[in-house]
Design brief:
The complex is a heterodimer of chains A (about 270) and B (about 70). Chain A is of the alpha/beta class. Chain A has one domain: Rossmann fold. In chain A, strands 2-1-3-4-6-5-8-7 form an 8-stranded mixed beta sheet, with helices on both faces. With about 70 residues, chain B is α+β, with helices and mostly antiparallel strands. Chain B has a single domain, classed as Alpha-Beta Plaits, CATH 3.30.70. The chains are: A alpha/beta (about 270), B alpha+beta (about 70). Bound molecules: thiamine diphosphate (TPP), iron/sulfur cluster (SF4) (3 copies) and magnesium ion. The site of magnesium ion has 8 residues of chain A, from helix 4.
């Protein structure tokens, strides 16, 4: 691998994330995937919203846009439609992608516009102080749920599948080698790709839920997840499955748009 | 393919935040935190060059340099 320093804006390091924050491992795996695929930095646009997770865009030496909370996919859609030859990556927090940005998320999936949506799911609003998110889960503690959260959570994989995403996968920060492989598949997929990454926020989700330090939270990912269709899952249905759930070919939005332009221009030039 | 062996661990002390992830999950218990909570290779001779520490480190502070077995540097 080329040095990781070729892909980052070194002047902003050490980064701002807390000790043990999983967002840094996502950054590392993403860079490794880009390096292994041999992608050119100049062909990549990273578009993010607002959140601890969204700060990842500031650290990579690609074309980057740091936009509005929940709206990264809307900005990314604009970029992709105007420059469809560029590869668009959209890292988002769980709140960013599925609370305020939930509508953008399902419609981008439905359109099947070619880009990679990475949901960095730490089950909390990290940046603003540990409020519960749509992914915290029933019974979990958060700054805004001191007596226990009564909201049920989304299953990001089921949601993305139902909304029409043509690539859907899940992994965790403990499973960094798998994360690299999944990101490589997602980056080369021709359509809307969703990668959910379970990541740790030791500062809020971990502390509020007495999950211990960052290594203990990784231990939790190891113990509570299993490859898709494993025997362990049959014995213990509460295990969370990891792997690629959907990878299908489906008409892609920018390609179809190009055809519409051609049809409309027929006989006019 | 020739077997890889460790040449050196490069750990950036300015970037390391002492989270302990590399220490906990090194399969050979090579790494430890020093008295300033920075990771260092306490038992480099046990390292198998798997790079899991490098892949998981959230602060991009570790680079594991390997060479092919028998190769001279
Ligand atoms: C329109 C708007 N509403 C609310 C906020 C405040 N805000 C900033 S980040 C954030 C949530 C962050 O949580 P998440 O998206 O899960 O990212 P994390 O910090 O956990 O990585 C909120 C509510 C904002 N910046 N803009
Ligand atoms: S608050 Fe949580 S999500 Fe934000 S940097 Fe700290 S550990 Fe990471
Ligand atoms: S994983 Fe990285 S930041 Fe954490 S202790 Fe090890 S070297 Fe330091
Ligand atoms: S490369 Fe593997 S064996 Fe060597 S220190 Fe890192 S985790 Fe341990
Ligand atoms: Mg979050």
């Amino acid at each position: 691998m080329a040095s990781v320093k070729e892909y980052i804006r070194e002047r902003f390091f050490p980064h701002i994330w807390c000790p043990g924050c999983g967002h840094g491992t996502v950054l590392k795996s993403l860079i490794t995937a880009v390096d292994q695929l041999g992608l050119s930095k100049n062909d990549i646009v990273m578009v993010s919203g607002i959140g601890c997770s969204s700060r990842i865009a500031g650290y990579v030496d690609f074309h980057t846009l740091h936009t509005l909370h929940g709206r990264a996919l809307a900005f990314a859609t604009g970029v992709k439609l105007s420059k469809p030859q560029l590869r668009v990556m959209v890292p988002m927090g769980d709140g960013d992608a599925l609370a305020i940005g939930g509508n953008h998320f399902i419609h981008a999936a439905r359109r099947n516009i070619a880009m990679t949506a990475i949901v960095m799911n730490n089950r909390i609003y990290g940046m603003t102080g540990g409020q519960f998110s749509p992914l915290s889960g029933y019974g979990k503690a958060a700054t805004t749920a001191p007596y226990g959260n009564i909201d049920h959570d989304f299953d990001v994989v089921q949601l993305a599948k139902a909304a029409g995403a043509s690539f859907v996968a899940r992994t965790t920060t403990y499973h960094a080698p798998q994360m690299v492989e999944i990101l490589k598949q997602a980056f080369t997929h021709k359509g809307f790709a969703v990668v959910e990454i379970l990541t740790q926020c030791p500062t809020y989700f971990g502390r509020k839920n007495k999950m211990g330090e960052a290594p203990d939270m990784l231990e939790w990912f190891k113990e509570n997840t299993t490859p898709i269709g494993s025997q362990a899952k049959q014995k213990n249905p509460s295990l969370i499955e990891r792997g690629v759930f959907v990878a299908e070919e489906k008409a892609e939005y920018c390609t179809e748009y190009e055809k519409v332009v051609e049809r409309a221009m027929k006989g006019r030039e | 393919m020739a077997k890889l062996k460790l040449k050196a661990h490069h750990i950036d002390r300015d970037w390391c935040k002492g989270c302990g992830i590399c220490v906990r999950f090194c399969p050979k218990h090579v790494l430890q935190l020093d008295d300033r909570e920075k990771a260092y290779a306490a038992h480099p001779e046990k390292c198998i060059g798997c790079r899991l520490c490098e892949m998981r480190c959230p602060d991009l502070s570790i680079t594991v340099e390997t060479e092919e077995e028998g190769e001279k540097s």
